[in-house]
Amino acid sequence: MSAIATNNAPAAIGPYVQGVTFGNMVITSGQLPINPTTKSMPEDVAEQAKQSLENALAIIKEAGLHARNIVKTTVFVKDLNDFARVNDVYERFFQQHEAPFPARSCVEIARLPMDAKIEIEMIAVRGE
């Protein structure tokens, strides 16, 4: 197992890494919607979803893979009433990157770090 680090996603805010490679797999840590350049977080849940997706993809790309290699995502939302808006952003993201939709779990949680409205993690696989 080896750590992945990129300036194109926010740095870890605790004792963990942005992502790891393990054999043919690339696994990201949960990505908050923090812009890695400005260190700011948008207020709107749709904008947060887009930023979290872009942050996770930056880690995948740092490992030499692309959106089409993503096989599983987990989406954590603070309010499941935001699901439709998040889903729209999610759908456009994968279409924009010409990637098939991966398997996905979406769960509502009580609270996220920095009071974010969303956090997204990904698993990608080298090969097919």
Brief sketch in words of this structure:
With 128 residues, the protein is of the alpha+beta class. The chain has helices spanning 45-62, 83-96; strands spanning 2-4, 19-22, 25-28, 70-77, 103-108, 118-125.
Helix content: 25-40%
Distance between the termini: 21 Å
Number of strands: 6
| Biggest sheet strand line-up | 1-2-3-6-4-5
Structural class by helix and strand composition: alpha+beta
Mean pLDDT: 97
| Inertia-based shape | globular
Q: What series of H and E elements makes up the topology?
A: EEEHEHEE
**Rg result:** 13 Å
Instruction: Tell me the fraction of residues in β-strands, as a range.
Output: 25-35%
Largest sheet composition: 6 strands, mixed
List the total number of helices.
2
Segments where pLDDT lies below 50 for 5+ residues?
A: none
Please, could you describe this protein's structure?
This protein is of the alpha+beta class and 128 residues long. The chain contains 2 helices and 6 strands; from the N terminus they run βββαβαββ. The two termini are 21 Å apart.
